[in-house]
């Protein structure tokens, strides 16, 4: 019997069930990753180096807390995801803007790094399923893969919307269509684990394109809401959804104890 199908397995699993709320928060967290770092570095005036140091420190603290938990705790998990999103974006930006590495080079590099992570994960655990993240080693593989999906998604999204010239509007439509294809394949019987990870990767450039579309000025093809309002709007929505999930989990736990 699959361990994740038992009640104990579900209780111990360190990541949430894949629901519509999961994907909604995931997409919004990628948008925050795209706009939040820009806000701190440019509008607050911290600069790239200080911003990178702050977000990396916060990420290490959040992941340390996440790893110490014995079960899935919504606010800790999603805080970690948002910070991974920010740091993943910063890694790609550091290579592109700071070191002058072409997006045509960084995109396949991150793809190779993600593939190597999956290969090592599967070799050690014989599964890439997120429904059995019940050991520290599996969780380390999981978060490493998540970091590379954000870095790859950022590079691929920037490559498509900027280097290739799709633009923000077309980027949202193209990546949205690709996610729709993956979703259709899943419901037609395609491998669930493969579809999940493809969707996870693609939601990053979708969220980034959406963030740029909302925050960038009309002069550059955006809607001109700015990074401040875009970041605050999505952060508010994320907090509201995570609060709802937390209350829902507590209600379910209370019903099971009754």
Task: Please describe the structure with a list of short key phrases separated by commas or semicolons.
mainly alpha, globular, 0% strand, 258 residues
At a glance:
This protein is an all-alpha fold. It has helices at residues 7-12, 20-43, 47-68, 74-98, 103-125, 136-163, 167-187, 192-215, 226-257.
Overview of this structure, please?
The chain has 9 helices and no strands. With 258 residues, it is an all-alpha fold. It has one domain (17-257). Helix 2 packs across helix 4 (74-98) and helix 4 crosses helix 6 (136-163). The two termini are 27 Å apart.
Poorly predicted regions: 1-11
Tally of discrete structural domains: 1
The helical percent reads over 70%
Structural class: mainly alpha
Task: Name the helix and strand elements from N-terminus to C-terminus, one letter apiece.
Answer: HHHHHHHHH
Radius of gyration: 18 Å
Tell me how many strands there are.
0
Q: What topology emerges from the helices and strands here?
A:
Blueprint: H1 7-12, H2 20-43, H3 47-68, H4 74-98, H5 103-125, H6 136-163, H7 167-187, H8 192-215, H9 226-257
Helix pairs in contact: 2-3, 2-4, 2-8, 2-9, 3-4, 4-6, 5-6, 6-7, 6-8, 7-8, 8-9
